[in-house]
């Protein structure tokens, strides 16, 4: 990668290359901010990331939950941990597993394994 | 005898006709060799366009990119793009698309420029505060690039006008700020086979996704978010705050996606829908999420199990779709009776008369730090919300007022007068103070500042 490439912050390659993986360019901000985010996930857990109002509801941007867990049990588990989260947050959220969309409306069986990364992504409408 | 300039002019004209001839033969080839399953957005607009010499120079730096080339530039010139909302997202998006030489650029917004817009809505200006945003935007854009045809729509996009307005465009940029209008844009774009470049931003984070692209294949807004967010979780930039360059970045990325769609080479570009999440303060600021294609059962772009749920052109036209109701009604709420509230003038009297009282400010600590009324006690709204999850809400609230005398009247204030009503109700239910002695201050700190009742006070 050349110095020029590093400057083209919004090329499509950038997204591909830097999406969700550790990188060098942002090492400084990483130290200052969330240390946990790029640390390896401890055995027996998966990482869950909360965005927008999911983060406001849980008061955290990420945490570790015990693995394995059936995807179909995820919302119930979160609702128990964070009262009324299903009604107030999860009902309107998109969910990703390892940076890929998963459809929570179909009864598709999927197991969340140790080391997985789950994203809870509410629609943000302002601009 | 010919001057040097004339000679140069001749040469350039010759070169242009050569390039145009090349272009014509190439597009003929393309139509034979690669049968496009989905026509590019501007296929409907076949009218011939030409670039002036000035335009060759103006667009040269992007035309020499193999991704654009002369064909891409012609596609841009043929394209008709609608920008819905010319605020934090729409401003930079419009500027870059105008600069890139989009042929027709429509701008729709019903708002006027306010001075609190200017830290992020960078194509408006201090001298145009009070002007319709659409007029202000086009003033800037025309100065940037006089070539595009700018179409002003100084009105809100509604179920009544959306079909008619969007029919004039091949691509729409959703730069709006409320879920109701996002669903409206989506439904109209789906029935009209128009791709949407959608973005949003709040605080220090942003989202970007290209929807209904190609039409009928890529997911639409309802595929991704079939259910709207609960009304109380919808926070605008006015309440939640927004870092200017964050929303600017999202708007610029919309312009990039728009250019990619318009100049798309179907042989080269594989349409794969992704969502980009940006978090300015995140450890990994960019996340790129792989999406799936459209949902088979989507009520907008798919075939729902219950056929009656399918959103149709007629349904929108007949006004059967109530987007505001779907998204849980309008913001703005009334929790209290009139006698449970006081105006800022009435509260000022309380202060002037020297009545012993407690002023409870429920704004968050950051806002409280910006400005506050003398002698106020700050307990953020979020703490009152959290108390709802405690075993005893009343006890949790009571513990916050341990050190306070309970025989004095309490006045509750927030920024705009909504949160304070909820807290006033909670305080009354917790029965810590005499029920008829807890009051909400109408319109909050903002009204206190606007009314000028206590002289100069910052409005933010």
Automatic annotation (TrEMBL), chain A:
Entries under SUPFAM superfamilies matching the protein: MoaD/ThiS
Positions of post-translational 1-thioglycine modification: 127
GO cellular component: molybdopterin adenylyltransferase complex; molybdopterin synthase complex
Subcellular localization(s) per the UniProt record: Cytoplasm
Post-translational modification: C-terminal thiocarboxylation occurs in 2 steps, it is first acyl-adenylated (-COAMP) via the hesA/moeB/thiF part of UBA4, then thiocarboxylated (-COSH) via the rhodanese domain of UBA4.
Pathway of action: Cofactor biosynthesis; molybdopterin biosynthesis
Main location: cytoplasm
Cross-referenced Pfam families: ThiS
Its job: Acts as a sulfur carrier required for molybdopterin biosynthesis. Component of the molybdopterin synthase complex that catalyzes the conversion of precursor Z into molybdopterin by mediating the incorporation of 2 sulfur atoms into precursor Z to generate a dithiolene group. In the complex, serves as sulfur donor by being thiocarboxylated (-COSH) at its C-terminus by UBA4. After interaction with MOCS2B, the sulfur is then transferred to precursor Z to form molybdopterin.
Protein name as annotated: Molybdopterin synthase sulfur carrier subunit
Record organism: Tuber borchii
TrEMBL record, chain B:
GO terms of biological process kind: Mo-molybdopterin cofactor biosynthetic process; protein urmylation; tRNA wobble position uridine thiolation
Domain Rhodanese: 353-457
CDD domains: ThiF_MoeB_HesA_family
The organism's place on the tree of life at top rank: Eukaryota
Stored Gene3D superfamilies: NAD(P)-binding Rossmann-like Domain (3.40.50.720), Rhodanese-like domain (3.40.250.10)
Pfam families: Rhodanese (PF00581), ThiF (PF00899)
PROSITE patterns named in the record: RHODANESE_3
Cofactor: Zn(2+)
Catalytic activity: [molybdopterin-synthase sulfur-carrier protein]-C-terminal Gly-Gly + ATP + H(+) = [molybdopterin-synthase sulfur-carrier protein]-C-terminal Gly-Gly-AMP + diphosphate; [molybdopterin-synthase sulfur-carrier protein]-C-terminal Gly-Gly-AMP + S-sulfanyl-L-cysteinyl-[cysteine desulfurase] + AH2 = [molybdopterin-synthase sulfur-carrier protein]-C-terminal-Gly-aminoethanethioate + L-cysteinyl-[cysteine desulfurase] + A + AMP + 2 H(+)
InterPro entries in the record: MOCS3/Uba4, Rhodanese-like_dom, Rhodanese-like_dom_sf, ThiF/MoeB/HesA, ThiF_NAD_FAD-bd, Ubiquitin-activating_enz
Gene Ontology CC: one annotated term: cytosol
Assigned keywords, A-Z: ATP-binding, Cytoplasm, Metal-binding, Molybdenum cofactor biosynthesis, Multifunctional enzyme, Nucleotide-binding, Nucleotidyltransferase, Transferase, tRNA processing, Ubl conjugation pathway, Zinc
Textual note on the cofactor: Binds 1 zinc ion per subunit.
UniProt enzyme class: transferase
Pathway assigned in UniProt: tRNA modification; 5-methoxycarbonylmethyl-2-thiouridine-tRNA biosynthesis; Cofactor biosynthesis; molybdopterin biosynthesis
An example Gene Ontology molecular-function term: metal ion binding
EC number: 2.7.7.80, 2.8.1.11
Biased segments, Polar residues type: 24-36
Stored SUPFAM superfamilies: Activating enzymes of the ubiquitin-like proteins (SSF69572)
Region of interest called Disordered, as start-end residue ranges on this chain: 24-47
Binding site for ATP: 88, 109, 116-120, 133, 177-178
Active site feature: 237 (glycyl thioester intermediate), 414 (cysteine persulfide intermediate)
Protein family per UniProt: In the N-terminal section; belongs to the HesA/MoeB/ThiF family. UBA4 subfamily.
HAMAP family: MOCS3_Uba4 (MF_03049)
Name this polypeptide is given: Adenylyltransferase and sulfurtransferase uba4
Organism of provenance: Tuber borchii
């Amino acid at each position: 990668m050349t110095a020029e490439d590093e400057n083209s912050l919004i090329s499509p390659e950038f997204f591909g290359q830097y999406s969700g993986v550790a990188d060098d360019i942002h090492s400084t901000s990483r130290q200052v901010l969330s240390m946990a985010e790029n640390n390896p996930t401890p055995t027996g857990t998966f990482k869950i990331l909360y965005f927008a109002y999911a983060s406001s509801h849980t008061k955290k941007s990420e945490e570790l939950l015990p693995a394995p867990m059936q995807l179909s049990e995820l919302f119930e588990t979160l609702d128990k941990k964070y009262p009324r989260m299903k009604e107030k947050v999860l009902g309107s959220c998109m969910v990703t597993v390892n940076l890929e969309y998963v459809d929570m409306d179909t009864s598709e069986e999927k197991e969340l394994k140790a080391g997985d990364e789950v994203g809870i992504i509410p629609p943000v409408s302002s601009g | 005898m010919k001057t040097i300039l004339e000679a140069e002019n001749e040469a350039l004209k010759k070169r242009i006709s050569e390039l145009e001839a090349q272009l014509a033969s190439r597009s003929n080839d393309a139509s034979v060799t690669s049968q496009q399953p989905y026509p590019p957005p501007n296929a409907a607009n076949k009218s011939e366009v030409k670039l002036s010499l000035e335009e060759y120079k103006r667009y040269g730096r992007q035309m020499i990119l193999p991704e654009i080339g002369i064909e891409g530039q012609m596609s841009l010139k043929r394209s008709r793009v609608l920008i819905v909302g010319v605020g934090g997202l729409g401003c930079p998006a419009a500027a870059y698309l105008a600069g890139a030489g989009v042929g027709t650029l429509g701008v729709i917004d019903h708002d006027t420029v306010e001075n609190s817009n200017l830290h992020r809505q960078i194509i408006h200006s201090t001298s145009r505060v009070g002007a319709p945003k659409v007029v202000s935007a086009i003033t800037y854009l025309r100065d940037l690039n006089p070539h595009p045809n700018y179409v002003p729509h100084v009105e809100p996009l509604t179920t009544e006008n959306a079909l008619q307005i969007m029919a004039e465009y091949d691509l729409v940029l959703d730069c709006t700020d409320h879920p109701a209008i996002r669903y409206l844009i989506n439904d109209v774009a789906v029935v009209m086979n128009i791709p949407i470049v959608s973005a949003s931003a709040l605080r220090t984070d942003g989202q970007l996704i290209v929807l209904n692209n190609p039409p009928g294949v890529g997911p639409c807004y309802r595929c991704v978010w079939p259910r709207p967010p609960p009304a109380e979780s919808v926070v605008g930039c006015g309440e939640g705050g927004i870092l200017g360059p964050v929303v600017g970045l999202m708007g610029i990325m919309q312009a990039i996606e728009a250019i990619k769609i318009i100049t798309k080479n179907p042989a080269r570009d594989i349409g794969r829908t992704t969502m980009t999440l940006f978090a300015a303060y995140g450890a990994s600021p960019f996340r790129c999420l792989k999406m799936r294609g459209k949902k088979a059962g989507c009520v907008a772009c798919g075939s729902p199990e219950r056929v009656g749920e399918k959103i149709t052109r007629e349904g929108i036209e007949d006004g059967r779709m109530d987007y505001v109701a779907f998204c849980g009604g309008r913001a703005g709420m009334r929790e209290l009776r009139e006698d449970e509230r006081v105006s800022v003038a009435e509260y000022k009297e309380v202060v002037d008369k020297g009545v012993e009282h407690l002023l409870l400010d429920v704004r968050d600590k950051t806002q409280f730090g910006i400005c506050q009324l003398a002698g106020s006690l700050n307990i953020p709204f979020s703490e009152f919300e959290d108390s709802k999850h405690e075993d005893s809400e009343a006890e949790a609230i009571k513990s916050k007022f341990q050190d306070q005398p309970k025989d004095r009247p309490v006045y509750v204030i927030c920024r705009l007068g909504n949160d304070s009503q909820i807290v006033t109700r909670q305080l009354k239910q917790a029965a810590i103070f005499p029920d008829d002695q807890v009051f909400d201050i109408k319109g909050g700190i903002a009204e206190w500042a606007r009314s000028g009742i206590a002289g100069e006070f910052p409005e933010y």
